[in-house]
Design a protein that fits this description.
Layout (H helix, E strand, L loop, with lengths): L1 H16 L4 H12 L4 H8 L5 H32 L22 H15 L3 E2 L5 E3 H4 L37 E3 L5 H9 L4 E10 L11 E11 L4 H16 L4 E7 L4 E10 L11 E9 L1 H6 L8 E8 H8 L7 H4 L2 H7 L4
Parallel strand pairs: 1-4
Antiparallel strand pairs: 2-3, 4-5, 5-9, 6-7, 7-8, 8-9
Helix pairs in contact: 1-4, 2-4
The chain binds 3,4-dihydroxyphenylalanine.
3,4-dihydroxyphenylalanine binds next to strand 8 and strand 9.
Length: 346
């Protein structure tokens, strides 16, 4: 008798162990517990036994039933925890397209710009966005009473103790740099001429946000220091770069301007063909000039031996011209319709 139940248990155990799906498990369950299954058949067979055997046999059947139910449930739980949820995978279906991201228009433009300068032998330089009075203003020959230092235009930081240590915190109050020009000073402090660098990066100014103004924007700074540099070098370099970026037919105008850290200083305007002759519209492209001797000597470079030229221009502005983008805010809203429209392979 013992042996009979042992065999039944072994049989069910073996069947469960090789069952891999819910459906197959259900078949086993029906085979044992279904209306015409093993257990109803066993129970029905009780009636053929003499009454004194029934009780004992009935108990055996009952204990097998309990064991079998538990074994089936245990297998069901094991399958549920390993089998994936949802409908079965049909590997013959066509794949769902994955929408790819794209390079942000600003990054794309920066890469183009850096690439053009790279070909001219410029190295990439970098500086912190949290600057000091010294680098952002003093060292750039911007005296304390200069209008650009007006607190209206600059974000100052109150609590320096919260900040990670910067490469150098020489000089005064902490602020968000209002231009990339402080990178010039950081490079000249570390490197001797010849120097030829570009430094793209983010700048901050306190401004009302509208279609053409933002509190954060990108600039590209450039600095060249060497012997015998003159305005010719400045002009030749920048005309070449802007022709690369905006097209060969662009016309230039160098307007005298004032920047504290250059002397003489200019602003470069560009005119692209196709723009109306009647209302000729010159577009401001870039500020530039010959590095002021005070800036050179302040950074430990002898202005009698070396001269330099420098320039700085805004990326958003340039992109707005090149790609005819009407509103600066589109660059930061991250509306995928805009980003998708602007994207092209890099
Ligand atoms: N930093 C200037 C600005 O934000 C731009 C600029 C002008 C940079 C002349 C220069 C330069 O390096 O020589 O308006």
């Amino acid at each position: 008798m013992e042996k009979e139940w042992q065999e039944r248990e072994n049989e069910l155990r073996a069947a469960l162990a090789t069952t891999e799906t819910e459906a197959a498990l259900e078949e086993i369950r029906i085979r044992y517990f279904g209306r015409k299954g093993e257990l109803p058949r066993l129970i029905a067979s009780l009636s053929t036994l003499p009454p004194e055997r029934r009780r004992e046999k009935g108990r055996e059947i009952n204990s097998f039933k309990k064991w079998a139910e538990a074994a089936v449930e245990e297998r069901r739980a094991a399958l549920a925890s390993t089998s994936p949820q949802g409908p079965p995978l049909d590997v013959s279906l066509p794949g769902r397209p994955i929408s790819e991201g794209s390079i942000h228009p600003i990054s794309r433009m920066l890469r183009r710009i850096v690439d053009v300068f790279h070909r001219l032998g410029f190295a990439l330089a970098d500086g912190p966005e949290i600057e000091t009075d010294f680098y952002n203003f003093d060292a750039l020959n911007t005296p304390p009473d200069h209008p650009a230092r007006n607190e209206q235009d600059t974000f100052f930081l109150k609590d320096a103790s919260l900040l990670p240590p910067a490469p150098s915190r020489k000089g005064g109050r902490l602020l968000l740099r209002s231009q990339t020009s402080p990178v010039q000073i950081r490079v000249m402090e570390k490197q001797r001429p010849p120097i030829r660098i570009v430094a793209p990066g983010r700048c901050y100014r306190r401004d009302e946000i509208d279609a053409t103004h933002s509190i954060a924007f990108f600039q590209v700074e450039g600095l060249v220091v060497d012997e015998d540099l003159s305005v010719r070098d400045l002009k030749g370099t920048l005309e070449l770069v802007f022709r690369e970026l905006l097209g060969r037919e662009i016309r230039f105008r160098f307007r005298p301007h004032y920047f504290p850290f250059t002397e003489p200083s200019f602003e470069i305007d560009g005119l692209r063909p196709g723009q109306s002759k009647a209302g000729e519209e010159w577009l401001e492209l870039c500020g530039c000039g010959m590095v002021h001797p005070k800036v050179l000597s302040g950074a430990g470079i002898d202005p009698d031996r070396y001269s330099g030229f420098a320039f700085g221009f805004g990326i958003e502005r340039l992109l707005m011209i090149v790609e005819e983008i009407p509103d600066l805010r589109l660059f930061t809203e991250n509306d995928v319709r805009f980003l998708r429209n602007q994207s092209s392979p890099v």
